Amino acid sequence: MNIAVLGVGTVGEQVVKILQEHKDLIFARSGKEINPVVGVVKNLEKNRDVNIELTDDLDSVLNRTDIDVYVELMGGIDKSYEVVKYALQNKKAVVTANKALLAYYRYELQKIAGETPFGFEASVAGAIPIIKSLREGLSANNICSIEGIMNGTSNYILTSMMKGDTDFAEALKKAQELGYAEADPTFDIGGFDAAHKLLILASIAYGIDAKPEDILIEGIDRINRADIFFVNDFEYTIKLLGIAKKVGNKVELRVHPTLIPKNKMLAKVDGVMNAISVISDCAGESMLYGAGAGGKATASAVISDLIDIARGTNLPMLGYKEPQKAGNFELLQKDQIQTKYYFRLEVEDKVGVLATITNIMSQNNLSVDSFLQKPHLISDDDNMATLFFITHTSYESDVNNFIDLVKKESFIKAEPFMMRIEE
């Protein structure tokens, strides 16, 4: 089985190396030789540690008759879509690690692929076999919820802040120095990378077609030392979670920094590691943990798809032979999400402030579960205080109304900050 690697970067190099170095093992498992024969690169002058033919002529490779599977590792969305679509239309199998491509075009590609094999295990959580688990191991189950740490960069930063007494800027700088964060880290710290992965999982779990613009996405860049003080004091930790939950015939999809109890399994996942918890009606809770990124880990997932193709395994791309019978779930609107909420308010320390805040809360159906006031936590000004609130379960719409109203008060001295809580 001949392979063309479209994009020979960090992951592409490892795909070629592992296929060659583990050749005997892969043959024993698949029953076929899987041979990387050509790689497509943008810059032929750049040195790459592979011993296969390299070319910058993408079109010539796409039209080769001796290629059985195209491994798409180019990244991006629209150009990759055209390339993958062309390969599938020509009945060539495809394997990709491109979560952004699938976040926008997974249903279009499923239709084009038809019975042509299309693998994408590497698109979510690196080496963690979450796609196989949902599509195969849990295929007899109704999925109640998915919660996961799906971005190693953000998890490293939050771990550093929680355990290293460092602020966000310092933790981000260290992540960049170690190569965990890009020079422009927006995609990771803004929650967009995790959102793309969540959308892929939600399609397999619920058959729901949503785009990134349709769901709630928030990043971690506004978390500060005051938040770390509070969550440590109240036995929480903060994780950027991707969350999918079945609510009747609707599904809520959201990505945001989340307070979770320190005794929860996901709370113990630190550094650049990923973990995903799936709760299903028959199997109960299953949790998968491992390396969510990196050349070897991602290449391992790519090659697992290649082995499946070599074996002749051809599962429905998104897990449904009869998608019209998948449950007909709809996306729950963002303002109808219900959970507990944490607020940080920096206020002028004077009589009547707390009463005004709780009155505004009451008018918007919010009730206080826990409250803490700390002077001098952010500022040495004797006239300033930081107020922390945890609410009982509330609607997102009521929380947003409260924030819009309270920030108009003259005693509010900084933009109110909110995080959601999952217990």
From TrEMBL:
Catalytic activity: L-homoserine + NADP(+) = L-aspartate 4-semialdehyde + NADPH + H(+)
Pfam families, A to Z: ACT, Homoserine_dh, NAD_binding_3
Keywords: Amino-acid biosynthesis, Methionine biosynthesis, NADP, Oxidoreductase, Threonine biosynthesis
Residues given in the record as NADPH binding sites: K99
Binding site for L-homoserine: E182
Domain of life: Bacteria
Broad enzyme group: oxidoreductase
Gene Ontology biological process terms in this record: methionine biosynthetic process; threonine biosynthetic process
Membership in a protein family: Belongs to the homoserine dehydrogenase family.
Protein's name according to its UniProt entry: Homoserine dehydrogenase
Organism: Campylobacter pinnipediorum subsp. caledonicus
